[in-house]
Structures are given as structure tokens and as C-alpha cells.
Design brief:
Number of strands: 8
Bound molecules: adenine
CATH topology of the largest domain: Alpha/beta knot
Oligomer: single chain
Strand content: 5-15%
Distance between the termini: 36 Å
CATH class of the largest domain: Alpha Beta
Largest sheet: 3 strands, mixed
Number of helices: 9
CATH architecture of the largest domain: 3-Layer(aba) Sandwich
Radius of gyration: 22 Å
Helix content: 25-40%
Low-confidence stretches: none
Shape: elongated
Number of domains: 2
Strand order of the largest sheet: 1-2-5
């Protein structure tokens, strides 16, 4: 699953340029039985399997302490990822990300190694890998020299607590397949910088009010 989409486009170029790098570790390589068993049934009963603490510990300890960094477990139970947390994580020199499968991870491992749980939203994936890829993508684009235009990260959604204003490009008038014409807002075409900024700020506020009233409250 790695680098997956991170091997393409902006993150892919940054990977090739050495702006970031990654290693994958397979917990199965740290099992002691001949079947390579990484999980077992949960104490107390219930559905699914639980990843074993001893196996995860061996996998974690195979990473040198100096390159381990914060240890994160992608889990729907975690603190929800947002742009503030992304900025914080992107400043870390190293991160270790545990991707769960099955029902979960033995709690004792999470407790013993101060593992931080991070969720990408209130829904459940079949495994943590896509969540890790999303978290990594959001961090990688903030690294120095990764985005061509350093300005792009400034005005975007969440950077000021609001959602981004709408964008338009040529043609100035577009006729859709139903024959309906759509014009670019006049204000964006007359080049009055201060007025444009004001209009964009109004639009940001309006779209945030409609789509994410919770952000406005904050
Ligand atoms: N693993 C499964 N669901 C997840 C979620 N919503 N966030 C992070 N990791 C997950």
C-alpha cells in the first residue's frame, strides 16, 4: 500500500527529490511461531481479532530510537486530524505510524509506548493504511520546497479557520451542455486588488457558514 498515491504527483516528486522518505515494516516479520501469527481473539469475547502487544513491540523496537519520533496509531477512536495537527506533525523530523487491521490493537502496547491515536474522521475504514496515506500527504505538502508556489498554502481552507473562497478561470463566459451561460463574477475581472480581497473574504465567510457552521463557532 506504500507509497501508493504518495508515489505520484507532488508527494511523489518530493519523494524522488529526497524531501521525505519512508520505510515499511511488516509486523508478521516479528512473529515467533511458524504461522506468523500477529493477532489473537479478544479477551472478554466479541468479534474480530486483536493485534498482539509482543509482536507490535518487537516491530517497534526494530526502529532505532533516534529515528522513531512520535508513535501514532491510525484509529477511528483517535483525536480527529485537522490542519493544526497536520502542521504540528509536519514539523517532526520522524514519525512512526501504526496501521491497524482487524478489530484493534492490544491496549497494553498503546499504553506502554505512549502511542497517540489519530483518526481521519468519524467513519470506519477496513484498515489504517489509507488514513496513514492521507495524514502523510497532508504533512508532506507543507514541507519546505515541496509545493512550487510557497503562497498556495497561505490562503487555503482552514489556514485562517475558514473555508476557501471560490475560484474561476478562463473562459470568462462558459456555456454548459444545456445552453446555460455562466459568467465569472464581475469583481474578479476588474482587477481592483483590495475589492477582490474583500469579496473573497465575504465568500469565505458565507461558504463556511453554509458548509461548516461548527468552524465559525470556533
Ligand atoms: N482506521 C479505521 N478507520 C479509521 C479512521 N477513521 N481514521 C484513522 N484510522 C482508521
Amino acid at each position: 500500500m506504500f507509497p501508493g498515491s504518495l508515489g505520484q504527483s507532488i508527494s511523489g516528486k518530493a519523494l524522488d527529490a529526497g524531501k521525505w522518505s519512508y520505510d515499511t515494516i511488516n509486523p508478521r516479520d516479528f512473529t515467533t511461531d511458524k504461522h506468523g501469527t500477529v493477532d489473537d481473539t479478544p479477551y472478554g469475547g466479541g468479534a474480530g481479532m486483536v493485534l498482539r502487544a509482543d509482536v507490535l513491540e518487537s516491530a517497534l523496537l526494530s526502529i532505532s530510537p533516534s529515528s522513531r519520533g512520535r508513535v501514532i496509531y491510525m484509529s477511528p477512536r483517535g483525536k480527529v486530524l485537522n490542519q493544526n495537527l497536520v502542521q504540528e506533525l509536519s514539523r517532526e523530523p520522524n514519525l512512526t505510524i501504526l496501521c491497524g487491521r482487524y478489530e484493534g490493537v492490544d491496549q497494553r502496547f498503546l499504553d506502554a509506548y505512549d502511542v497517540e491515536e489519530i483518526s481521519i474522521g468519524d467513519y470506519v475504514l477496513s484498515g489504517g493504511e489509507p488514513a496513514a496515506i492521507i495524514t502523510m500527504d497532508a504533512c508532506i505538502r507543507l514541507l519546505d520546497g515541496v509545493m512550487g508556489n510557497e503562497d498556495t498554502a497561505g490562503d487555503e481552507s482552514f489556514s485562517n479557520g475558514l473555508l476557501e473562497y471560490p475560484h474561476y478561470t478562463r473562459p470568462a463566459q462558459w456555456t454548459d451542455a444545456n445552453g446555460q451561460t455562466h459568467d465569472v463574477p464581475e469583481i474578479l475581472k476588474n482587477g481592483h486588488h483590495a475589492k477582490i480581497k474583500e469579496w473573497q473574504a465575504e465568500q469565505s465567510l458565507a461558504i463556511t457558514k453554509t458548509n461548516r457552521p461548527d468552524l465559525l463557532k470556533k
